[in-house]
Structures are given as structure tokens and as C-alpha cells.
Amino acid sequence: MKKELISTLFLLGAVTLQAQEAIDKVIYRIVYKTDCVEDTTEIDSSGNYDYDEDEMALDVGTKVSKFYSLLNVRFTQWMGRTIKHGGEPDANDPQPPGPSILWTSYYNYPTGKVSTLWNELNARSRTEEPIMPVSWKIIGDTCTILGYHCTKAEAKYKGRQWTAWYTEDIPIDQGPWQLGGLPGMILKACDSHRQWIFTAIKLEQVNGKEELALDKGWKKYELIAKSKYYKWRRTTTKDDMVRQISAVSGVKVTFVDKNGEEYSPEEYRKEFMSADPFNPPDLSE
């Protein structure tokens, strides 16, 4: 179920137009086509999931790596241009696809930790956790991805069973999300239920020509325990956030459907009074 972003991002603050702070230099970038399942109950008659799609970039620096949505970057840039035009989209600047993934992960920032910025439901939260090594078992099967000879490996990590394909031709022991620790770059990874699938579609040697950036709004993200955030995310509804916005602003907030019509009470209960599905790569909490 693709998120209906354009009607809610201005209100809920999922896109921020802030300057960036450099914390490292980008040496290598790998882009992954990412297929993820937001709602595991949405299955068709053939037993197939309804996938959301995104393009996630892994920026590898000298000390820090950043994993983030390129669709979110493009959408944010487009929204900034639209705001400069008075809020009216430019006919020659069509709206790009909106992101499905609204979190950003920093590996080894602070040193020895993974930090994740969560920008959902009108709240900015930051979780930190120690870097946990992945205990891979190298299977030995091989395949070719983007012209690179890859070897198969498997591991159980943070509540999921993962299969990865890595290439020693790129001697960087990293991969999508928090998957790494193999003798080469991971070009493909998926969990056993195929709810998260990362497939490399582009490789780029940046060689320090770009900065690896940290959002200057970093301190505005509330640092909370991952378990607390997960509980909040699994129980908070859009109605909770509407009430919060109305209370803070003193303005009554209403949502309308794609036709501009206000939701009926029954439709509103269905859409806004139950928690959104939450199915992150990490199921350890």
C-alpha cells in the first residue's frame, strides 16, 4: 500500500527542508532497489505481498556510513522548489514519486553505534544501539549481479533470517541497512519471508567529492530507547496526531480524501483510528 504522501507531508512534517552538516566524505555509493512490505496482512489470492518500493542509497565514508531514501531526497528537493514557487507545482517540474521509507540510518555514528532517525506521524525520534556483528555462514553458491561475481551467505540477525549475495571484487564489508561483515560488498539481500528485498542497481565511486551529511536538525530528534519507540509506533494512530496538532496550533485539522471530500465517520475510524502497520527490518523488539 503506497503511502499517500503529497496530501500529508506538509502537515505531518515528514519532509524537512534543513541544511546539512558534514561528518565525513563519501567514498563509495551503492543504490538498492528496495521492495518492502508495510502491511503483512495484505496478501492477494496467490499469496503474494503488496510491496512498497523505494531506492535506498548506502553512502560509505571513511568512518561513517549513511543509509537513506533517494526518493525522499528527490521529493524533498521538489517540494523545496515548489515552495519557492508559492506552493504551486511548476508544469515543467513534475512531482517525483514519494518515498516509502522515512527513516535514515547512520552506521558508526556516534562511534560504535547505529543511529536511526525516524520521521513519522508528526514526530522526530532518534534511536541509538550498539553495532552488533552479523554471524554469517558462507554457503558457496554463486551468481552475477551488475557484472560482479557474488557468493551467497546466510545469517539470523535481529529477528529475521537473511540471505545475502556479496562480491569480493568490491572489498568493502558493508551492505544495505545494518547488514555487513562479509569479505566484500553485499549487492543483494532478502529475509526468508521476502518482506525486505534489497537489490543493487547502481554503483558509484565518489572518492570524497561529496560530503556525508548529518541533518542539522539532529538535536531536534528526541533520543529514546528503541523498544519505547517501537511500542509508540505500533500503537499511535493518525487520530492521535491530528488531536495533538489541533491542540498545539489551536486550529481544527481535518483530512480529505483524494476527491477533496471530508471522510465520513465510518471511513475516518477505519483510516485514522487504528495504528499504521509497522514492519521494520529489525524485529528484535
Describe the structure.
- The chain is 17% helix and 38% strand.
- The chain contains five helices and twelve strands.
Radius of gyration: 20 Å
Strand content: 35-45%
Main-sheet strand order equals 7-8-9-10-11-1-2-3-4-5-6-12
Question: What oligomeric state do these chains adopt?
Answer: single chain
Treating each run of at least 4 consecutive H or I residues as one helix, how many helices? Answer: 5
- Helix proportion: 10-25%
Shape: globular
| Uncertain runs | 1-17
**Classification by helices and strands:** alpha+beta
The number of E-state strands comes to 12
Distance between the termini: 24 Å
Q: Report the mean per-residue pLDDT as an integer.
A: 87
From N to C, what is the helix and strand string? HEEEHEEEEEEEEEHHH
The major sheet is characterized as: 12 strands, mixed
